[in-house]
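Because discrete structure vocabularies remain unfamiliar, we reproduce here a specimen of the format, pairing a chain with its fold in token form:
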Amino acid sequence: MGKLLIGWVNEADRADLAGGRWAESLPQTALADDRLSKAARTLGNRTADTAIVADLGEAKAIGLAALFGAVAAPAPGCPGSTARYRVRAGDDARLAGPLLDLDFTGYGPEDPRIAFTRSSLATRFDRNGRLQGYGLTEPLTINLDGFDPPGTLELVLQQKDRDFRVGEAVRLADPEDAGRYLDGTLTAFEKQSGSACLAIASVSGTGSSTITWRLESLAARYGWRQDHEPASGTPRGFLIEGERTNLLARSAQFGDAVWTKQNATITADAGATPDGSLQADMLVESATTGIHQITQSATVTEGAAVTFSLFVKPAERTRLALVLSSGGDYAQGTFDLAAGTATTAQGGAGTALSARLVPLAGGWARCMLTGSIAGETSYLAACRLLNPGGNYAGDGTSGLLVWGAQAEEGPDASSYIPTEGDPATRAADVARLALDGSMAEGTLLAAYRSRRTGSVAIAGLNDGTADNAIELRHGSGGARLGYIVTGGAEQAALSTGSPAADTASVAGIAFAAGNASAAADGGAVITGTPGTLPAVTGLDLGSRPAGERLDGHLARLQLYGRRLGDGELQGASTALALQLGPVAWDSGWLDVWQGNWRREGYAAVMLATPPDVAARYWRFDLDDGASTDGFLDLARLWLGPAVRFEHNYSYGAGLWAEPDTQIIRSPGGVSRFQDGAAPRIMRLTLEHASAGEAHRPLLTLQREARLSGEVLTVPDPEDVEFRAERVFIARLRATNPIRNSYFQGYATELELEERLT
């Protein structure tokens, strides 16, 4: 059994707190509020969001460090069952870490410091592999028996990451009957719990009241996008793209006359699509011999590289070709859905630049062909069935599911842009974070992935123009650069290699007056000597004032207020490892709930017992990335000295809950009960204290804590199984005599009552 620990001085109450990202209405300062009902809420659940750095003003000996989760734990917003934490201490201010640490792979509210604009809808994949962005869907099993619009419906969404917004038009649709739906407006929505309120105005169609309805947003999506790997649901980060136009009309309506059918027919609404609707069409071969395909013409810039993409799902046929052609000139991509392979072919003035197949959820895949035809301004886009070649005798019934056709000028396929009667354009993403002032020195790092190699904007500090900037970007030739320009004059262009397209990478640039360094992916540091640093006013994410975009994902970004040394920069460019300077003590990563010991109704207790380490700066890091809540609610931070007793309390100790219940008995003998709170009570019987322990810490505890001050007691630091039950912030219930019970032996009792508010 470990030694008893008692602390009654909380230095965190007087510390300057910093780090992390916090809700304005539930700020970080609540961690130093002795009202335990006050909570601080993070704006995410990753280490970048949850860091807590306490500056004690001077080095102080700390023997007890603790962070308490929400009082109502474990509920949404409290550290999850796989959460972990880490405590570090030191006397170097570098322990505070970066000025900005933005992790876009976690879940939580959008950071209010980032100003984002895009003047059109845009799509993304959610964590379930479903395409979202222009008509979100949600399966809901509800009974509408007796409901007669107009009226109000209250619902709880089963997937809480859905980005519904108050005030937008919504529809409850019957997925089995396109003519049956209820239209209205979303009047309330709580993203974390999924609670929603709908004002239904009208109803169309009739049928059974108990079905699995689908809630759809009828509004365009203008917000910034957290994207996911469509097959695995793994977060990819902040999707940032430039402007693109889908040149094909009726992108998901292949039965329309704009699509020419050759030896083929279309069966409309034959299956579920990647966005969850039942609007996938079946491309069916006719019972004739020949080429079986659908086609549509697209007007392009002369000889332009065009990417033609299509969502497909195998049925009786598992092979297809995407073709861009003009007369006898063509570029072709051949796709084997069963094998997951893609190959290219070309003829005449056509050039097939690439073909790619991306697996999606639900058996779907997105097939993509990039090609060009010299001298032509009109390309014919075709989807052709293969068995195994393109010219064969059809059986009149076989085919595959198709949806979401897109042809766009560019070397890659961007996110899907749905169209109706005409081509449609998705506007460019613009994200910027204003700075409080310019930077005389600093370090900018980013973890990113771009679909292409040349003319890529990763992140940059600037004054709103391309003439004064400190940037991470790819040049037009594909070289990755740490780039500095002042007054339009290049000061440094430090190349750290040429990464391949669609490859995860980390790049960084460190700068100060007269010197700069760049590094990427832990590789060699490249140095330069810029003459003058520019004055900057903001940070652009995934874009440049000159017009380039990331056209990919920004996973994480860090901005330090100091120039990292070259060794630190190289280390930071390896998975964005934090550069915190010398650390005097490090607890290492610890499980919040110690495996499976999470307790319903008890707050999480993140405890560390440093061996009386004297340090000015103390840092807590939490990682709850496996949770989907998207935030953490934390109640109290404790940093203070601790008294360790040489001998533990005796077997006379006790722990119980004491209900605050009033019993009212009527004259007739009937009892009525008014139940209040039930705080935990702990009695510690100390029978073997030394003279030093009796006359110093025990007497000082009674004098300083009295009956109103806070006391934190850890009966057994090694007991992780029952920590949540046994460790809590309390107050002394009474002061008892410290008795000299035998020669040089002292005894007393401590009775502690849990603080609940």
Q: What stands out?
A: The chain has a mean pLDDT of 91. The longest helix spans residues 691-705. The chain has four helices and 59 strands.
